Amino acid sequence: MRNLDGKHKLPSSHHINILQEVVDISLVRQSLVRSYTRSFNGFAAYLTPQEQEKLSGKFYFLLHF
């Protein structure tokens, strides 16, 4: 995966950066369940309803269950 500036960035660190926007920084690593990088780029995380709402307003958000 390449960052917008062309530098390589680990997908899991990118996912952590996204989570930091909606989850308390001390809980980010516990919230991240899994990073997916082979067939598609995404992640699974434990989120509160309020965190889901905040994340759903982001431009890169696709789907939540």
How is this structure best described in words?
The chain has helices at 11-20, 28-31, 49-56; strands at 32-36, 42-45. With 65 residues, it is an alpha+beta fold. The protein has one domain (11-56). Strands 1-2 form a two-stranded antiparallel ribbon. A hairpin with a 5-residue loop joins β1 and β2 (42-45). The model is unreliable at 1-6 (pLDDT under 50).
The percentage helix is 25-40%
Shape call = globular
Specify the structural class: alpha+beta
Read across the widest sheet, the strand sequence of neighbours is: 1-2
**Element pattern in H and E:** HHEEH
Number of helices: 3
Domains (count): 1
Unreliably modeled segments: 1-6
The end-to-end distance, rounded to whole angstroms, is 25 Å
How many strand segments? 2
Which band does the percent of strand residues land in?
5-15%
Please tell me the overall pLDDT: 80
Compute the CA-based radius of gyration.
12 Å
Largest sheet: 2 strands, antiparallel
Domain Inhibitor I9: 13-56
Pfam families: Inhibitor_I9
Protein name: Inhibitor I9 domain-containing protein
Q: Which short descriptors sum up this protein?
A:
65 residues, alpha+beta, two-stranded antiparallel sheet, 34% helix, globular, disordered N terminus
Summarize it:
Helices cover 34% and strands 14% of the residues. With 65 residues, the chain is an alpha+beta fold.
Can you lay out the helices and strands and say which pair or pack?
Elements: H1 11-20, H2 28-31, E1 32-36, E2 42-45, H3 49-56
Antiparallel strand pairs: 1-2
